Amino acid sequence: DTEVTQTPKHLVMGMTNKKSLKCEQHMGHRAMYWYKQKAKKPPELMFVYSYEKLSINESVPSRFSPECPNSSLLNLHLHALQPEDSALYLCASSPGLAGGPRNNEQFFGPGTRLTVL
Amino acid sequence: SQQGEEDPQALSIQEGENATMNCSYKTSINNLQWYRQNSGRGLVHLILIRSNEREKHSGRLRVTLDTSKKSSSLLITASRAADTASYFCATDPYISNFGNEKLTFGTGTRLTIIP
Predict the structure, then answer these.
(1) What is the CA radius of gyration of chain B?
(2) pLDDT in tens, B52-84
(3) End-to-end CA distance of chain B
(4) What span, in angstroms and rounded, lies between the C-alpha atoms of A111 and A17?
(5) Are A93 and A3 a contacting pair, CB within 8 Å?
(6) Could you read off the pLDDT of B93-103 as tens digits, one per residue?
(7) Residues of chain B with pLDDT > 70: what percent?
(8) What residues 4-43 of chain B have any CB closer than 8 A to a CB of chain A?
(9) Scanning A10, B1, B102, B107, which has the fewest C-beta atoms within 10 Å of its C-beta?
(10) Helix-strand-coil percent breakdown of chain A, rounded to 5?
(11) Cβ-nearest to B42 among A45, A55, A110
């Protein structure tokens, strides 16, 4: 299985809602990522989990809360979002630093299109 | 600031022609990668070239890397309508010999193939 899956595909939420985005991979990868992408822009890194520990937080507001329950799953909990948080949220995975000499190509899921009203 | 800047920002060519896009970066790197993104979808990894490599091929793709100029190019030969997408370079900055999980994406080139 060489796929990264993300649910839901689309999400519309109000500014007072709490919701979660889910990501799953079964490639045995030990690094997992959350990116935010606005239209016609490159992906912006939000968080990196390495071996189930949060290794990078790119100064993301606390209304975004990541969670890595196990090596295959990655969640992004959303609370009190703002309309400017509307974007495509991408999950990715890579083998991890033990995967070989700088073998850090990333495998992306299809994304969740988030709209905040 | 963006590690990678790509040019052109947009490129339209006729089907069957070759497409070339360029990426420039600012710091030393372990490797440079190219990704494709179809509209509103996830990115797909195309090719990885290491800092000690100068050229790499994969099917209709040819990537070059010039570390002295801190630049890379992606050539797609005999383009097809299905190649219409955005293309991003991504650099793995050299921090240590242990590699780096954080990639920095370039600004992207939007490629349109006209049938």
Answers:
(1) 14
(2) 999 999 999 999 999 999 999 999 999 999 999
(3) 36
(4) 20
(5) no
(6) 776 555 567 88
(7) 92
(8) 30-31, 33, 35, 40-43
(9) B1
(10) 5, 55, 40
(11) A110
